[in-house]
Design brief:
By secondary structure, this protein is an alpha+beta fold. It has two domains: 60 residues, no CATH class; 50 residues. Strands 1-2-3 form a three-stranded antiparallel sheet, with no helix packed on it. Strands 4-5 form a two-stranded antiparallel ribbon. A hairpin with an 8-residue loop joins strand 2 and strand 3. Helix 1 runs antiparallel to helix 2. The N and C termini lie far apart (54 Å).
Length: 111
């Protein structure tokens, strides 16, 4: 069986706030370690029937970028849900919510 690995390193400041998020994947076309300002990682615990999550962001992550990040994450979650369930009505609802969320986040930034 083939194996692929994803490595995530988080550099913290003295208050344990993420300063830098670095990652690489063994099956990625990118040879160098990549830098990210934010990350969301979720695992499903089938035994406990609960999601285990790690959400991190650095001080450099700006509010407009966080809005973009959430919008894109919600849209890709909708795509994943569609591939897994083929429940188009729910997928469309999630995409509509994502678009509304994005528009509202942009409006709030204008204030």
């Amino acid at each position: 069986m083939e194996q692929s690995s994803i490595t995530i390193d988080v550099k913290l400041d003295h208050d344990k706030i993420p300063q830098q998020i670095l990652w690489n994947a063994s099956s990625s076309s990118a040879e160098d370690t990549q830098t990210a300002k934010a990350m969301m990682l979720a695992f499903w615990d089938g035994k406990e029937k609960s999601a285990l999550r790690i959400d991190l962001w650095t001080k450099e992550m700006m509010m407009d970028e966080m809005g973009d990040f959430f919008y894109q994450t919600l849209m890709t979650m909708a795509d994943t849900y569609n591939r897994a369930t083929h429940q188009k009505e729910l997928v469309d609802d999630l995409k509509k919510f994502a678009a509304d969320f994005y528009a509202r986040s942009r409006k709030l930034l204008e204030k």
